[in-house]
């Protein structure tokens, strides 16, 4: 039986003041040749809200909720937190874990899906951080020279603790639409766009979770499944829904998942989909945008949806509401405790991966491996910020 002695929350990170904005964006885009002018443009999104991303405050709140859920379930583990692109940096957290005597750590990432930037890159982050701390040779309090082993929890996009809070927030958002527009409203689910090559590599051939020959690969398939599950739980599944994408960045020569949410809204207002296909029910009377690809309402949600998409809808005369992400709900924290308890109870110390209805129980070596087609460019998340 795996014996864990610490819990680690993994997240993307974000600036906590104006002076943090450009260093954060430089960390996100390092090695990808993003022009300084583009960084300055993105920085303005943060400066418009005081230079503070919501994500770190939300991680603190999430940790408090998880601690309460652990206590309720009798899980006695200290909680730690490490980010990819801002403090507390993951490598520093691994140093703390080692100094505190942790030998085996269970990690949970604030990303629910299978793709390179949503899952595999967090595994790569863990591997690099552990290697750095291992090389430093700092003696742990409990003895031994090695850095702790860190096991990451599987994707959780189909779990009730993710789906049910989303359904409740969609219901609440429908209630925000003007009277007379709710019944004819359309649900527009959004997720972070990624390069088509990255999406195609999502999943594992070895574990039977890859979706070859399908645009978007397993990443898009999981998003569609989650969107369908949420829709079925809202007013008997009577509202039509679409899956679209947002926050695309990178050169136009590289194809990314489409359609863009703003292009889709413009098409809906004309009574069609973005590809020109007419809607049988005609133009919707309103839209509820659902950030199904995200765990928390961080910067790419509050700017790209609450500002940009909302402005697009207003210009089209299309009533608009946005559902909240589920990460700060009690149900979500209870799901984390449930996932940790399942892993603790598992006798699967070798982490052999077996396929299930929501993917493999862990990430095999071939899962979500991605290398961009352009030589000299390392694999990595979209320059605009990835998928926290």
Describe it for me?
The protein has helices at 18-29, 36-47, 55-73, 90-99, 116-136, 160-176, 196-200, 217-232, 261-269, 299-302, 304-316, 330-345; strands spanning 6-11, 79-83, 104-109, 149-152, 185-192, 241-246, 286-290, 320-322, 355-356, 359-360. The protein is an alpha/beta fold. It folds into two domains: 6-156 and 329-360, Rossmann fold (3-Layer(aba) Sandwich), CATH 3.40.50.1400; 160-322, Rossmann fold. The strands form three sheets. Strands 2-1-3-4 form a four-stranded parallel sheet, sandwiched between helices. It has a four-stranded parallel sheet with strand order 6-5-7-8, with helices on both faces. Strands 9-10 form a two-stranded antiparallel ribbon. A hairpin with a 2-residue loop joins β9 (355-356) and β10 (359-360). α3 (55-73) packs across α12 (330-345). The radius of gyration is 21 Å and the shape is globular. Residues 138-143, 347-357 and 374-388 have low confidence and may be disordered.
Short description:
The protein is an alpha/beta fold.
Query: Helix segment count?
Result: 12
Per DSSP E runs of 2 or more residues, the count of β-strands stands at 10
Number of domains: 2
As a percent range, the share of helical residues equals 25-40%
Q: Biggest sheet, strands in spatial order? A: 2-1-3-4
Q: Structural class, from secondary structure content?
A: alpha/beta
Question: What portion of the residues fall into strands of 2 or more residues?
Answer: 5-15%
Low confidence ranges = 138-143, 347-357, 374-388
CATH C-level category of the largest domain:
Alpha Beta
Radius of gyration: 21 Å
Shape verdict: globular
């Amino acid at each position: 039986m795996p014996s864990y002695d610490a819990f680690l929350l993994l997240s993307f990170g974000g600036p906590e003041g104006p002076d943090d904005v450009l260093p954060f964006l430089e960390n996100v885009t390092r090695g990808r040749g993003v022009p300084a002018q583009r960084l300055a443009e993105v920085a303005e999104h943060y400066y418009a809200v005081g230079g503070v991303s919501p994500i770190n405050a939300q991680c603190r709140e999430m940790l408090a909720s998880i601690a309460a859920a652990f206590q309720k379930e009798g899980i006695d583990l200290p909680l730690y937190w490490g980010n990819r692109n801002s403090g507390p940096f993951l490598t520093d957290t691994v140093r703390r874990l080692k100094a505190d005597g942790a030998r085996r750590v269970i990690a949970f990432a604030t990303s629910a899906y299978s793709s390179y930037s949503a899952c595999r890159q967090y595994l790569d982050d863990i591997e690099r951080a552990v290697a750095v701390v291992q090389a430093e040779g700092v003696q742990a309090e409990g003895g031994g020279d090695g850095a702790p082993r860190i096991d990451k929890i599987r994707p959780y996009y189909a779990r009730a603790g993710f789906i049910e809070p989303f359904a409740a927030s969609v219901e609440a958002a429908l209630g925000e639409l003007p009277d007379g527009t709710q019944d004819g409203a359309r649900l527009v689910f959004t997720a972070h766009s990624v390069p088509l090559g990255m999406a195609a590599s999502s999943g594992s051939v070895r574990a039977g979770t890859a979706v070859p020959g399908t645009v978007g690969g397993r990443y898009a398939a999981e998003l569609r499944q989650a969107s369908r599950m949420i829709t079925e739980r809202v007013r008997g599944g009577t509202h039509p829904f679409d899956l679209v994408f947002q926050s695309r960045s990178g050169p136009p020569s590289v194809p990314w998942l489409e359609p863009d949410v703003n292009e889709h809204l413009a098409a809906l207002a004309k009574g069609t989909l973005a590809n020109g296909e007419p809607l049988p029910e005609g133009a919707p009377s309103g839209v509820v945008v659902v950030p199904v690809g995200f765990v928390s309402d961080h910067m790419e949600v509050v700017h790209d949806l609450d500002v940009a998409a909302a402005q697009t809808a207003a210009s089209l005369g299309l009533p608009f509401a946005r559902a909240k992400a589920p990460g700060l709900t009690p149900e979500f924290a209870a799901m984390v405790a449930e996932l940790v308890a399942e892993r603790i109870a598992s006798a699967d110390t070798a982490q052999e991966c077996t396929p299930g209805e929501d993917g493999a129980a862990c990430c095999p070596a071939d899962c979500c491996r991605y290398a961009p087609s352009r030589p000299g460019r390392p694999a990595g998340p979209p320059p605009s910020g990835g998928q926290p």
